[in-house]
What does this fold into?
Amino acid sequence: MKKTTLFAGTFDPYTLGHHSITERALKLFDKVIIAIGHNSGKKTMSTVEERMATIKELYRDEPRIEVTAYEGLTVDHAKACGAQSLLRGIRSVKDFEYERDLADLNREISGLETVLLISEPQYSAISSSAVRELIGYGKDVSKFLPKNKL
It folds into this structure.
């Protein structure tokens, strides 16, 4: 059975972390839908159409990526697109708990499972307090630190 996932929320095509997560998602799923959440009453630096065009251009050679836009609940849009799961990108350790809680809520609302993909370390934004917390739990944090600081 083919699997489709929806990359929900705002998507910044210029952020290496998002690109890294999308590339990793393509290894897991047959199709990835990049969905741009927006609010028509809110002013932004670029229009939804401009953002969609930029993302489509970025992935023009990848037929397994579809770009859509939506207002309202992500889970409603996911079901309308035929997605079997939601994909949430994590670019910092401190985002993990929030995203995990959101995944639980989305599952309760819609029955859709959420796949949490962590960006490759070189693209992650991690705070020094998060590193200290990980050290406190005995975790190896060397992969989060710049090479010249080790």
